[in-house]
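Margin note from the TA: students keep mixing up input and output lines. Inputs are the sequences; the output is the structure of the whole complex. Example:
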Amino acid sequence: MKLTTKLWIGLGLFMLLSPLGLILPDHFKAGSAWGEWGADEMEKLVGYVPQGLKHLSELWNAPMPDYAFRGWEEKGLTHLSFAYIVSAIVGVGLIALATWVIGKCLVKKGE
Amino acid sequence: MHIPDGYLGPATSGVFYAVMAPLWVAASRIVKKTLKARQVPLLAIGAAFSFVIMMFNVPIPGGSTGHAVGGVLVAILLGPWAAMIAITVALVIQALLFGDGGITAIGANCFNMAVVIPFIGYYTYTWISGNSPTHSRRRMVAAFIAGYVGINVAALFAGVEFGLQPHLCHTATGQALYCPYGLRIAVPAMAGEHLLVFGWVEALVTALVIKYLQKQAPELLGQEVR
């Protein structure tokens, strides 16, 4: 089997297992990463929402926020795990494609 | 380590975009000269691997979460300049599509994770592994240490970037405008959790994949784009 095929299979396994990155923090009651709190969490932590943060944090509405579908914030772990795997597939697809295109362009121009 | 929008003031965000612009140009020039056509699939897999490994959030029970970046691994296999391009792509898609890391913070996040991690990791790895043969245990140990050092230096940078904000931008009454935690809190928090937990995760991921490749594809080790 070609090495790249093996590596893609490995990546596929990682993608299927990715919900562990959601389930384990939930199980061990771990919160957000340090410095990645939302505005409400920030208010609980320091008693106010910094004005600039409030303003800038609304700058961009990602289509799949937090590796889930919009409006799925209140869904259970099973739904979120499914969304997480879909995010992994979409993300890997786009990133591999973009990097491959960039790589091809660079190599071509270099010849 | 994905700094969201609103945590860095405009000046800091701008500085990091300004720092990254020439680095991105340099990376594309260097990679253009040195990347071989047969390495392109590996570059794409490297970027995808970095993205997936970042989805594995590791909890500190009752505390925060963090994850490996895989940046040192990509740098060992393809060189730090190619790794910079691969991880930049992953970070940009994360910010745009998944809201992981801010749009205004792409410069800073790329500096921390697509420059500091691959460069510090790569040179730590080559320094320790020296001229040892590709299948040697020393290379695996070098990969382990490089993973640990690379992500920790990046965490330190991120801590300083967070921590400078309340000193740089605050209202007349002293309320922070952006990240409210100063250097005395942000630096120990970011450095501490990576030194204690997440650094080991990056070390382990890097060393295990290198060990796997030593057996399965030793030809991949030692052909990086310098």
